[in-house]
Amino acid sequence: MSDNKRKILEMLAQNKITADDAYRLLNAIDGGEGRRENSSKGATAVKDKAKYLRVTVLPGPESDRSGKCDRVNIRVPMSLIRAGIKFTSLIPSEARDKINLALHEKGIDIDERNMKPEDIEELIGALGDLEIDVVGKNGETVKVFVE
C-alpha cells in the first residue's frame, strides 16, 4: 500500500474526511498511478470515462446528533443519461417544436435534432469537470460530482 493511500485511510479513521472524499481520493491516486505506468510504457494517457453522476446530501453536526436528519446518496449511471438523450429521437415533431420554443424563450438555444453522438460524448466528458459543493447555514453539505 502506498504512503498516499495510507494517509487517506488515516484521515478517514480520524474523521477528518468523509467516506465519499476518501473514495474519490483513492480513485484519483489509482488513476494517477495507472497513467504513470502507461506513460512509462510509451502509451498515451486517456482520461477515464465518467461512470456515474453523484449527488450527496449530508446533515450538519447538530442535525446528526439529534437524529433528525435525512441523508441522500444518489448515483446515476452515465449510461442511463446517454440512453435518455438518445430517447429524445422518439419525441413527436410537434412536441419537439414546443420544447425547442420553450427553451428558446428561456435563452437556451439547443435543438436536440442537431446533436450527434460525438456531441453527446463531449457533453458527458465535460461533466467530468463538474463539482458542486454547498454548505448550508446549519452545516449540511450538498455535493454534486461525476466519478
Describe the protein.
50% of the residues lie in helices and 16% in strands. With 147 residues, it is of the alpha+beta class. The protein has 2 domains: 1-48, no CATH class; 49-147, no CATH class. A hairpin with a 5-residue loop joins strand 3 and strand 4 (141-146). The protein starts with a helix and ends with a strand. The relative contact order is 0.15.
Q: Which residues sit in consecutive blocks of at least 5 with pLDDT less than 50? A: 33-47
- Radius of gyration in whole Å, from Cα? 20 Å
Strand content: 15-25%
Spatial gap, N to C terminus: 22 Å
Q: Nutshell version of this structure?
A:
The protein has helices at 3-13, 19-40, 61-66, 78-87, 93-105, 117-127; strands spanning 52-58, 72-77, 131-135, 141-146.
Task: Break the fold down into its secondary structure elements and pairings.
Elements: H1 3-13, H2 19-40, E1 52-58, H3 61-66, E2 72-77, H4 78-87, H5 93-105, H6 117-127, E3 131-135, E4 141-146
